Amino acid sequence: MRKEASFALGLCLMLCLSGCGSAERQKDQESTKPAEAAQSSQVTQAPQAAQVDGASFTTDTKIEDVINDPAFEEYGRLIFPVNSSYYSGSTLGDLRLTWYNNIDPSETVEIVNYLKEHTLAGDTVFYDIYTEEEKAADPQKEDTGLFFFRGEPGAKFAVCNAGGGFAYVGAMQDSFPHALELSKQGYNAFALIYRPGAQTACEDLARAISFIFENAKELQIDTDCYSLWGGSAGARMAAWLGSYGPAAFGGEELPQPGAVIMQYTGHSDYTENDPPTFACVGENDGIASWRTMERRLQALSSLGIPTEFHHYPGLGHGFGLGTGTAAEGWLDEAVAFWEAQM
């Protein structure tokens, strides 16, 4: 009953506040608890590009030129928010995302160059998670998929989930950078592009995890002790899937993650069977209270669940990797926490 009541209350809040476009709207939208759903899982590969101009992107490259680059085929439009009202700027150097701070243009450029270079090398960097029939039946599923940042063959995997208040997917600050850094450390990392909305986002994450397990041999990954990462709304997704498992949201009956890594969210729900959890947040976050995160981690710790918590003075919401801030280096600490659970 606790689960259903929480969902009903959250749904009412979302409906009441659906016209609001402020940071306060994000707080209420990302607090909505999803209900259970059932879906199937099947893989398709994105086609690989050939004979494409290999010139590197720079901070002066127009965002629309990246989206329309022939190397990316149809999925170029998913690199940036599908709803363009949630980002501003015309070039990679002046990109800004709603509710995010500390965007590093050099990271943005590195990410799009990584995607293009690997595509030109013949690697599949994007995977559909729904069939053509499913997308035809529900056109919103056209705006989903997994970007794959390869690590060492046979290494463990992580799924990174961007925030965006369940209104859009801020992958360029909140999941692509994390996935790229994890791949540099040898891990296989996926960045999920999901349908906005707490329920649909969790369904897409459940489908993505099921997709990865189903295709582990092709992807050359180890499914043991995988990890779920997320910031803001994406952290809620990681936590919900960690607490209740993919099957609760339409995925397969699969093991829970070996670790959940959370950034800047006011998520307070937990269970006595939650996975080991790492969390970090800025003390000046006006959207996610660091005290709320601290209380949740303390509650998990009291149950004997391994935890690690960091809060950073003077830092606001959506700092991503935290390059050049008090949070710089947090990802290495999170990786060490994950490795300790292996």
UniProtKB/TrEMBL annotation:
Keywords linked to the UniProt accession: Hydrolase, Signal
SUPFAM superfamilies per UniProt: alpha/beta-Hydrolases
Biased composition (Polar residues): 38-48
Record-level Gene Ontology MF annotations: hydrolase activity
Signal peptide annotation: 1-23
Domain BD-FAE-like positions: 163-243
Pfam families in UniProt: BD-FAE
InterPro entries named among the record's database cross-references: AB_hydrolase_fold, BD-FAE-like_dom, GDXG_lipolytic_enzyme
Region (Disordered) residue spans: 27-54
Stated name of the protein: Alpha/beta hydrolase
The species this protein was found in: Candidatus Acetatifactor stercoripullorum
